[in-house]
Write the structure tokens for this entry.
Amino acid sequence: MAKETWTQLWKKTSIRYTIFIYFTVSALVAMLLSGIALYAQMSHQLTAVVQEESQAVLSQVNRTVDSYLRTIMKLSDSLYYGVIKNADLSKETIGGQITLLYDNNKDSIANIALLSKDGELLAAVPAARLKTGLDVTREEWFGNTLERTDNLHFTTPHVQYIFDNNENQYRWVITLTRAVEITHGTSTDQGILLIDIRYNSLQQILENISLGNQGYLYMISGNGELIYHPRMQLIESGQMGENIEKAAGYRDGSYREEYGGEMRDVSVKSVGYTGWKLLSVTPEKGLPLSNLKMRLFVVFVVASFLLVLVLINAFISSRITNPIQELEKSVNAIEEGELDTQVYTGGSYEIRHLGRSIGDMAKRIKTLMEDIVTEHESKRKSEFDTLQSQINPHFLYNTLDIIVWMIENEQKQEAVKVVTALARFFRISLSRGKSIIPVRDELEHVRNYLMIQQMRFKNKFVYVIDAEEELMDMASLKLMLQPLVENAVYHGMEFMDGDGEIRIKVYGNKGDLWFEIKDNGLGMTEEQAESLLSDKPHVSSRRGSGIGVKNVNERIKLYFGDSYGLFIQSEPDEGTLIRIHLPAQPYRENMEREGT
């Protein structure tokens, strides 16, 4: 049903809107494809730029972290080669020298300690002693340091738990350890130099780095343990995740991944010899093309292009279709019957040629219609005269029958009156060949007829003619009343018991002219009344052909139109009423129609 509705609407769409829609849709498709290609290209270029920027930032941060760690390593070298390696711990203490170096670096260093291979605390600044009950030799970092004596070892961030201090607070540190050689008199032995790096000093370096709208940096160890993350606490509490396993196995470079239901770009950079990795993460929704302002800007640009496109398409379609619409107006006027309309012949060559062809066609149609009207009028007049000729002999036959009867009965004076009335009757009947006569003449005509019939039936009936004076000059069809009155006399009065009455009334009503012929005769059934006007063959009576009523009705319709004619009401033993409906037209106007 909906498909049919859209099909009907499309069929009713004008050519202007059809062209406009086609142009607009084609342009929109082209613009959409171009926009998608442009967006993809810009997105690709932007992603490459962001990756380059991320790599640049990552390199800069890596250099900063590397510089920071080198400072710590230099401190470690100074402690080892400048203090520990040159001291004989059996004769002297090195606490003062360690304290001096600590004071110079205490912003980034929490503790410095020297441990023997048995876990004994040999020197510590500012810590005084190890935690009670703590055996450092059991710590993983302790064994790893003694096993790989040539390396520096870094732990992951943790709360300082080795030393007792006077501060009742937790300190987050990263512990650096290295194997050292300790001298006791003439003997040497292995020991461990331990430096607790303040975690917040490294955190300050990393947390001030910004990567776009929603990008961030984080750091992991070589085995995938988290060293720094801007949302460290959320990750440790399990409220947030990070794809650390993939990052730990990826070498330096960049890659794209989907994590947590969104696409993001990740860059990886190793931090020198520590085995740590710095990673930058840039979510796709954080890119400039993905944020709300950029999307609104894109929508604004697209809307602007669309507006310009609509205006251009409207101008082009109007230039193409305006001549066609003007030609359509001319065709609509011709369709409504205005054949004299000046047909539009502007626009392109095709439209001008079509306009001239339609104009020529309208002229030919007008000529053909005039020929058809002339032929139809001729045919109508011929049919009209044929129907009328059927009535004149019919009435003449009946009237002569009356005269013969009077002469046979030696009623000479009555016969003279009948002949005189007959002469006046035929004078009006001739009417110089006219089919339309004034109401006055038509009533005079039927009056003469009734006079003849009244003499024929020896005053067996009376008649009354009632007409408004202002209607006397209206147009009436000639020989219209006489056949109907004849039926009233022969079929209504002849076999009545008692006096008959025939009333003829003429009146006007709302621009219409009405004639009524009413008798109090024998009447007829409804079926008989309908048969008088039907197309079925009519059975003639013993006094006439039976064609009078039907011919009058056909003549009225033929001359005035199908909306006019006769209406019959009758009931047995109640009489008959015949109404004649004509247009109320002055006789003079109809004279032109008769060609006089």
